[in-house]
User: Which sequence fits this backbone?
């Protein structure tokens, strides 16, 4: 009964807030009708779906053929992480929501985005580790979007959040526009691990995974520092092979 009252109260509050602070959905150009994931409207948000097609059983790269089990990159160069859990494809409303959070500072989107990940079968882990920003990147953006979503996961899954295990010790040029080889070179050696990591099974969160260069380097750093295992969880993958 209390849950129903709370839900109705939240819906009412959301409607009031949205009427006071109206916004236009960047996807359909209609007025947003839900403050929780505004500016994206309810209809467009409900169009976000979990990817269920064929994918690499290691890194979750979407594959063209349902008969393929492992992508060529994982066969050629075994990653330091043991598994990637991915929610969807970086397109449509999911891509727009991530974009709005990262580049327009719509921090409230961290909660509904984080809750999308709860539909994944997440194994038991000792801690959640967000992919860090450099000090310069954090100053420029004002927040780390991976930390915001990681807080949601930590709260919902009752897994400790360790935001001080992994650091990005130097700034790097943006990965956008670089190929896989350039991305690996760009990010090589920029992360540093500290604290009590020995024998921990860690869940590393990144919002978007393209070639996997960033999470590979993060996982390698954590394993080298003593982590027993690193699993990766992402909101979206952006490539198909």
Assistant:
């Amino acid at each position: 009964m209390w849950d129903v009252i709370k839900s109705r109260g939240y819906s009412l509050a959301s409607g009031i807030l949205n009427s006071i602070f109206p916004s236009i959905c960047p996807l359909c150009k209609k007025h947003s009708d839900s403050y929780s994931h505004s500016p994206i409207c309810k209809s467009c948000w409900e169009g976000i779906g979990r990817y269920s097609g064929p994918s690499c059983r290691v890194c979750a790269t979407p594959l063209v053929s349902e008969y393929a089990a492992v992508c060529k990159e994982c066969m050629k160069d075994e990653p330091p992480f043991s598994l990637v859990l991915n929610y969807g494809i970086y397109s449509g409303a999911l891509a727009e929501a991530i974009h709005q959070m990262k580049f327009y500072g719509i921090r409230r989107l961290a909660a509904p985005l984080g809750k999308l990940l709860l539909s994944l079968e997440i194994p038991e882990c000792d801690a959640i580790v967000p992919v860090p920003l450099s000090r310069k990147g954090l100053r420029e953006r004002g927040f780390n979007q991976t930390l915001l979503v990681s807080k949601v996961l930590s709260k919902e899954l009752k897994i400790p959040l360790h935001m001080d295990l992994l650091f990005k010790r130097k700034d790097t040029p943006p990965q956008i526009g670089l190929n896989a080889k350039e991305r690996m070179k760009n990010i090589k050696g920029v992360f540093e691990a500290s604290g009590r990591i020995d024998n921990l099974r860690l869940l590393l969160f990144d919002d978007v995974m393209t070639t996997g260069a960033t999470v590979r380097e993060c996982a390698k750093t954590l394993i080298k520092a003593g982590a027993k295992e690193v699993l990766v969880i992402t909101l979206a993958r952006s490539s198909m092979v």
Q: What stands out?
A: Confidence is low (pLDDT under 50) at residues 1-7.
